[in-house]
Structures are given as structure tokens and as C-alpha cells.
Amino acid sequence: MYIQQLIDKGYPVKEFPKDSIIYEPGMQPRFVYFIKKGEVRMVTVNDAGKEFIQGVFKTGQYFGEPALLINKPYLAYTIVSKNSELIPVGKTDFLNLLKDDADFSMNLIKVLSNRLFYKSMMLEELAGEKAEHRLETIINYLFLEVSSGESLKVTRQDLADMTGLRVETVIRGVKLLADKGLINLNRGKIMKV
Amino acid sequence: MYIQQLIDKGYPVKEFPKDSIIYEPGMQPRFVYFIKKGEVRMVTVNDAGKEFIQGVFKTGQYFGEPALLINKPYLAYTIVSKNSELIPVGKTDFLNLLKDDADFSMNLIKVLSNRLFYKSMMLEELAGEKAEHRLETIINYLFLEVSSGESLKVTRQDLADMTGLRVETVIRGVKLLADKGLINLNRGKIMKV
DNA sequence: CTATTGATATGATGCAGATCATAATTTAAG
DNA sequence: CTTAAATTATGATCTGCATCATATCAATAG
């Protein structure tokens, strides 16, 4: 991965404790952040304080490029979910990285394509499908990075914040899906068969 | 633009009449399409036949890269909105284009970033905001590429298909926004001041 | 000018999911 | 083990938007 290269080049690693805010909506982007270790979430918040999870980023991934590259202020918060070590890379350096390293450039293109895919899928769900369908879709999506016999490590509140629903609706919806045999529950945990 | 270069290189231009379908959900991607002239829309359709407009692409733009690059079947239809002339570029050729032309590569990255931005904005709206707010947001966004004194050239149905609302809700919502002085109507047309 | 089609408009009714309230259960902390 | 905090659970009520039905208006073709 590219993270070791950055460290070798002398980029400093910064510690971000859980729940700290890396940036807020309205701020002008200055860095792309590479995650040496940890986990962050990008969330938008409406006037009523309702959160929506735009994305989750984990060890080895990076975030914050789109706003930086198109020079628009952030529209989301990025918040540390687990104590993290991040490597901020300034705009000029990031652009040089893209220019000099065709592989990285290609990697970014694929990463952006994957994020677009996810967002297109979720837009279709939020625009056209009701609670149960949304839940089935997001659960199957999350299952992709979980092995059989394991359970999803997200709370009902997390599912709510990813689908635009309310906790109570998620709780009831998940139960309905279980009743219909579409998912498996084990002491409340959503299990991949 | 890159289109003339493609023509010079001998890529054939194909005609697509209005309402023809370029590709459907489930199909395996084989081309990226450059629009020499015309307009297409990417739409997802739910089981009940309700359409959601994922994006609109016009003369000079290109579409279809994400699914091609990450090797997943399309999840949307792409339908011709105005008689169009398209240049399909096969996967290998498109990858070579990216490899050999750093400018194009950078252009794609920015294009993808802009699309992500739009989708993030709309996700926040669909997940957390109600009809009036959604409409105000999409109208202001569409205003970006319209000059003052001009009107939006979209129908209420188009607005509905971009916001996940129903036509009747859009009609009522637009009227409410006009009553509140948040937008200007002229014989039903939404005017940019 | 007239007919046809598409777009906008308006009222009435129904329902999915939000909201509010409270409780049971699980997990984490001391 | 015990207590506190977080998560899951369940019922009752409220509400914004969908849905259905029908009408008016605007645009386009002949």
C-alpha cells in the first residue's frame, strides 16, 4: 500500500482520539488523509440533528480527496470512530502523487468508482424503496466484508443512520426480515449464514 | 476536449435515437461512451416502475466508466433523452487512454469527484430532509448551469424523479416555495433571478 | 384554428414510518 | 457480582407524502 511509502518519505503520523472531529461542513479542504490505523466515519447532519452516514473509512484507506480536488468546502463531518493514526497529505503533494504515480492514480479512480456505486445503490433505495427493502439491501452489502458464521458489528442505530430510517423502524424491520427468513438473528445479532 | 481526438484516431460515431436504451441493469459493461452530441439520462427503476434519475450527461461528457472499471454489472438504465451521437470506447482502449494521458486521468478523477459530491448532497437530502427542502436544494443546484433571467428546462416530473418525490408533491412544494418568496415562478416556469 | 397530447393543478383519502413514551435486555465498568 | 450505560424492544399516536381521481392549462401537430 501507499501508506508505508508516505511514512518512508517522512510524512508525520498524527494521532486522533475517538470522537474527535477531523473536519466539519463548510471548512475549506487542505489535506487528504491516509489511515495508518483506525476508523472514521463521514456523516452529514440535518437541522434537526439527524445524522446520515455517507461513508466509513478504515485502516489502509484514505479520504477527503473529492472536496480537495474540486475545491469545494466539505459538506460532511468526518469523525473518528476508533482511535486513529492518520497521515495528512497536503494538496500540492497529493497532486504530485497523482501525477508521478500512475498506479496510485488508477487506484484512486477505482476507489471513487466504488464509492459512486455504493451511493448510486443507496440513492435508489432512499428514493424508491421502503424500510424493509432498504434494510435488506444494506445488510447484504455489509455482509460482503464479513465471513460466514460471523455477525454484523453494527448497531440498529448505525443501520438507521445509513438508511435514513429511525432506530425503532430498523428494529421492527430487522425483526420482520428475520420472521420472513430473509436474515438470521442470534440474540439480536444479524448473522451471515 | 477528448472527443475530437477519438474521432481523429478513427473511432466510429454511432447514432442513438431519442428513447433508445444504451444499456440496462444487469448487463456487463463493455464500453465507455463519449457524447459527441446529444443527451442521455441514467435512471434506476424500482419494482413498482418508479424512476429515479441518477445522472444526466450532455454533449462533451462521457459516461459508463465506473461499472466498467470495477467490473460490476450496471445497476441503471441509460436512456437517450435527445437524439445522440456517441463514441463507444472499449475497455482496453479506455484503460490505455488513462495510462497514456495523465491529463485525461486527472480529468476523470475530477469528474468522478463532482458526481460523488452531487450524490452525497442528494443522499443527505433523501435521508434527512422533507419535500420542500429537497426541492429548494435541487433547484438551486440546477440553477448553477443556468444564467439569470433564464428558466429551468425541467418538468415537475423530472424534479420528482431527481428527488424521489411524486409529481403532485413537487407541484405543491414548488408552489409553497414560490409563496414564501424562495423561488420565482413565471407562468409555471421556475426562473433564476 | 382545432385536436391531441403532455404538463400543471387541486381535492380527498390512506398509510408507512416518525415520534413519543416506557420497558426489557445486553454490554461495559467498577 | 453489581451498577450504570447502551442497545434493543414494544405499544400508541401523529403526520407528511403517496395515492387516486379529475380538471385545467400549455404546447405541438395536422
UniProtKB/TrEMBL annotation, chains A, B:
Keyword Transcription regulation listed? The answer is yes
Q: Name all Cyclic nucleotide-binding domain ranges.
A: 1-115
| Residue span, HTH crp-type domain | 129-193
Against PROSITE patterns, the record matches this protein to:
CNMP_BINDING_3, HTH_CRP_2
Instruction: Please give the superkingdom of this protein's source.
Output: Bacteria
Matching SUPFAM superfamilies? cAMP-binding domain-like, Winged helix' DNA-binding domain
Give the keywords, sorted.
DNA-binding, Transcription, Transcription regulation
Q: Which Pfam families match?
A: cNMP_binding, HTH_Crp_2
PANTHER family in UniProt: CRP FAMILY TRANSCRIPTIONAL REGULATORY PROTEIN (PTHR24567), HTH-TYPE TRANSCRIPTIONAL REGULATOR ARCR (PTHR24567:SF74)
This one is known as: Crp/Fnr family transcriptional regulator
Give the species.
Answer: Pedobacter rhodius
Upper lineage is: Bacteria, Pseudomonadati, Bacteroidota, Sphingobacteriia, Sphingobacteriales
